[in-house]
């Protein structure tokens, strides 16, 4: 389920955002990185909704600095 729009989509159509045990947050396009994960559509609108509603922070259990969101957004644009 996308954290932005809430739509149920196949995992192949979503991008996983993962928080490693060291606390590093990154995109996981393979879906195989270890850690706690959350999913978002490949649309920038969904990413913006997820960021505004802070759903990612609650799903990954912790505050996320703005620079991490900016980095994720840049990476996400490659897949849009």
From TrEMBL:
Pfam families: YlxR. Gene3D superfamilies: YlxR-like. CDD domains: YlxR. InterPro entries: YlxR, YlxR-like_sf, YlxR_dom. Residues 1-74 form the YlxR domain. It comes from the Bacteria. This is YlxR family protein. It comes from Feifania hominis. The lineage of its organism: Bacteria, Bacillati, Bacillota, Clostridia, Eubacteriales.
């Amino acid at each position: 389920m996308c954290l932005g729009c809430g739509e149920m989509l196949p995992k192949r159509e979503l991008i996983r955002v993962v928080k490693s045990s060291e606390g590093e947050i990154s995109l996981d396009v393979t879906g195989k990185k270890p850690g706690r994960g959350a999913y978002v559509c490949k649309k920038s609108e969904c990413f913006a909704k997820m960021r505004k509603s802070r759903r990612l922070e609650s799903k990954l259990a912790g505050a996320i600095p703005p620079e991490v969101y900016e980095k994720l957004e840049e990476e996400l644009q490659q897949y849009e």
